[in-house]
Structures are given as C-alpha cells and as structure tokens.
C-alpha cells in the first residue's frame, strides 16, 4: 500500500507539471516530424561542372545527366575563379586527346558525383562515336562488296580490301588519359572532413550550453542568485559577471576542443588556425548566453535537461551536417535562425578554402547579433526574480 501511495503522489506531481508533460509527449512528436521532413526530401546531390575546350557532344552528354549542370568557360583561369567563388564544383579541361579534372573536394559526395558523371558521359560519347564509325564502316563494306562484284581481277580486289581495313583502323580512337587534381585534400578525403568543422562547433555549443545552464540553475535553486538580486547590483552587472566567469571556462574548453580535433584527427587546415579558434569562441559565447537564458525558464535540473532535445536536435539537423541544398525552401529557411550554421559555414571556409577571417563579416556579424540579443534577453529575464 505504501508503494501505491508513493506512486500516486509522484504521478500527481508529474501531472501538475504541465511543462514536463508537454516535453515528454509533444517534443518527441515534433522531433520525429522534423526528421521526417528532412530525411524524406530529395537526397540526390546537385553538382555544377565547368568545362574548358571540351567538345559540344561531351558537354551535352554531361548536361543530360540528372542533377548535373554544365557551364562552359573560354579559359581555365576564368574556370578556376568560378571554382574559388563556389559557382562550380569541378573543372573539366581537354588537353589534346586527354582530360584534366580539378575538384574543389570540399564535399567528397560531390567529387564522387562529378567523377561518375564525367565517366558516364565520356563512355556514352565514345559509344556514339564508335556507332558512327561502325555505320560508316558498314557502308564502306557494302560499297566494297558492290565493287568486288564489278571487278574481275582478284589482285585489285585484294588491294581495295587492304585499303578499307586501313581506313577502318584509322577510325579507332585511343583511350583518353584522365588526370585528377584536388583543391582541398586528396582522393582519400571523405565526407567526414566536411562534417568535422561543423561537429567541432556543435560540441563547443552543446557543452557550453549545458554547463552554463546547469550552473546558473544551481545558483538560483540554492538561493545564491536571489540573495544577489536583493542587493543594489544592476541586473546587467550580474549577467555580465556570470558570462565572464563561465566565459573563461568556455574559452579554455573551446581552445582544447579545436586543437585536439585538428591535431588528433589530422584535419588539413588551409587557412589560419587562430581564425578557427576565434569563430568557435564567439559561438561558445552565444551558447553561454543561450544556456543562461533557458535556465531562467527551468525550475529544476530535470526541466533543464528536457530543453536539450528542443534546442540541440535542430542545431544538428540545420547546421549543415545534413546537406540543405536538396531540401525544400521553407526547410532551408529554418537554418537561418540556427547559430551553428553560421559558425559552421565560417569555419568550413577557413579550413577548406583558406578564407581570411576579415572576409567572413556576414557570418561573424550574425553570431554577434545572436550574442547581443540573448544577452539583452538575459538582463530582462532576471527582472522576474528581483524582489526589490
């Protein structure tokens, strides 16, 4: 009976907590619906190929392949400029009878797609050329047979046959040599290299968010924050004080995560390593402000943990780990309110393309806007706990 009594008491407390019930029953449904929208979208990879001095037939064969766009350029210099500006994913240049392929290789999936599309198009072009040559050879053979019937002398017929065989031999083509070049990495660079800059930011965001939120919640539930709010200290001073104190830990954690990730996993960093750390530090401050803000809405550590699926799971889906190119426009629009997306884009540009941090003003500016807005909301949010 005592067991039943304890069970009834706990159930009554749970049913009184509407927030817990909502997070237990509604949050999983929302996340499952979100996953359905993301994973049921077109998962094909769209690629854009720039060609230089390539035949019209080969260009047409590549363009006829689904999800492949072909852009022609007059010189390789203009094509390289387009590759650097991310307008194309690879360059195909014909050198005599051979081909030179240059891949951006920032996404191994796109590199593999370009390789397959080019080989399929080249094979189809060769087959068409062989068909044309065979047709001409057949017509020559028919004509030769008519000549053989008209000509009486066997020696002249043998000479004509020899000439036809030589003509047929001359139509055969040498297999072209294909040379591959990679702007980033090499042929062994996998999809994990694209994910790593984003995963780096995700782990920075997740752990800073969790630690800061839990720490401030403990300050509030223990009464420390209430006593502090009872003093004449300004709310802004309290928020900045907490952010600076946890910020020191966030800085140390961020530097450690970045350095260990780059050195232990052997990731190639084309740009400046310090720039990678700076971007992740800004993201850590955003996570810090976010964690402090959500802790003001939680009454216990259990409720704080319940916020994780609603906050962290969307960060994974819309950060760029799952390609957004093939998703519906309204799904991609959600990513614009996700801080990790901007940090991931910036760090990817630094690591894979060697972009200077001074060229990433847009991404950094958006992260700073997130930081300012969340800090202001934290200052306003403390007003509800001030008794005086």
Task: Walk me through the topology.
Layout: H1 2-16, H2 18-39, E1 47-52, H3 56-63, E2 68-73, H4 76-84, E3 90-95, E4 98-103, H5 108-150, H6 154-171, E5 178-182, H7 192-221, H8 224-229, H9 235-264, H10 273-295, H11 301-317, H12 329-334, H13 339-353, H14 361-381
Parallel strand pairs: 1-2, 1-3, 4-5
Antiparallel strand pairs: 3-4
Helix pairs in contact: 2-11, 3-5, 5-6, 7-9, 7-10, 7-11, 7-13, 9-10, 9-14, 10-13, 10-14, 13-14
Features:
ABC transporter permease, 2 domains, 388 residues, 68% helix, alpha/beta, transmembrane, 14 helices, single chain, D-Maltodextrin-Binding Protein, domain 2, five-stranded mixed sheet
Q: What would your notes on this structure say?
A:
Strand 3 and strand 4 form a beta hairpin. The two termini are 47 Å apart. The model is unreliable at 164-172 (pLDDT under 50). The chain folds into two domains: 47-182, D-Maltodextrin-Binding Protein, domain 2; 191-385, no CATH class. With 388 residues, it is α/β, with parallel strands linked by helices. Strands 2-1-3-4-5 form a five-stranded mixed β-sheet, sandwiched between helices. It has 14 helices and five strands. Helix 5 packs antiparallel against helix 6 (154-171) and helix 7 (192-221) runs antiparallel to helix 9 (235-264). Keywords: Cell membrane, Membrane, Transmembrane, Transmembrane helix, Transport. This is ABC transporter permease. It is a multi-pass membrane protein. The chain crosses the membrane at residues 21-39, 195-217, 238-267, 273-295, 307-324, 357-380. InterPro entries: ABC-2_transporter_component, ABC2_TM, ABC2_TM_bact-type.
